[in-house]
Task: structure prediction
Amino acid sequence: MPDRKGNLMSVRKDVKVLDATIRDGGLCNNFEFTDEFVTALYKANIKCGIDYMEFGYKASKNMFKKSDFGKWKFCDEEDIRSIVGENISDMKISVMADVGRCDFKEDFLPKSESVIDMVRVACYIHQIPAAIEMIEHLHGLGYETCCNIMAISQANLNQINEALDMISKSSVDVIYLVDSYGSLFPENAGDLAAKYLEFAEANGKKVGFHGHNNQNLAFANTIETMSLGVSYLDGTALAMGRGAGNCAMELLLGFLKNPKYSIFPLLEFIEKYMIPLKNSGVTWGYDLQYMMTGQLNRHPREAMQFTADKRGDYSEFYKQLLENF
Result:
């Protein structure tokens, strides 16, 4: 294990915080946030000192019908500008594009014509060549780029080494360790972070971490990987995100010692917008069904269906998971 970077009292100037509430949280409500909600979050994030705000996906309109989703599934330029204008703040704007689910050659303007600053390319480990093609195209347009390698907990060491070798030699700026299934513990999250950092630092890249909270460890894994040198950290307001949710932004901002970050505007936003959203019936957060899929290192889709069906037979669900393991 490499030496830890800094200590609990120190400030790491390399750390960047990314708010993914609209993007990951959009998976909970079909991206149907009101403009008032998104505008209020944008303003709160600026006041909090957050470095990046991710507005959603750049999904293919050929694969997904616009009428079936809220607009943050597609993040059209005019929709983002209707919230941020020219974004004269210090906070940068991010979107995510999934390999195989976007039309990246048609849907991205040159950076000089767009208010978007960074594109996070999400892929599974077998899609690394396609991810690199996207990254090089987007880099050529002038964007900052990340590669978020999903479901890494199911990959073997040889696959991870090969993937990191390939991606770290591309034009990518940040390589993200993603705990898609919420199955990692701080110890193995730290081991993986060390592996990512080994390849990234040799090629002048940064490393990020995106956690899921199936085992109530998203925050613990985030600060463990940060302590080893990971510098891009994801969080969401009130931990809103797919299934069990993500690292709670309020926990992260309360932990970081950099005086540029402020928790108070986020608390005001949570009070006014997140609590009513949850009370309206939008569902996310730790629950037993997500714990089970996290412990078994599998996609939470079955747990999400369990939740949607309003089931409460946890022991029967666990038996079903084991039978289909």
About this structure: The CA atoms of residues 273 and 290 lie 25 Å apart.
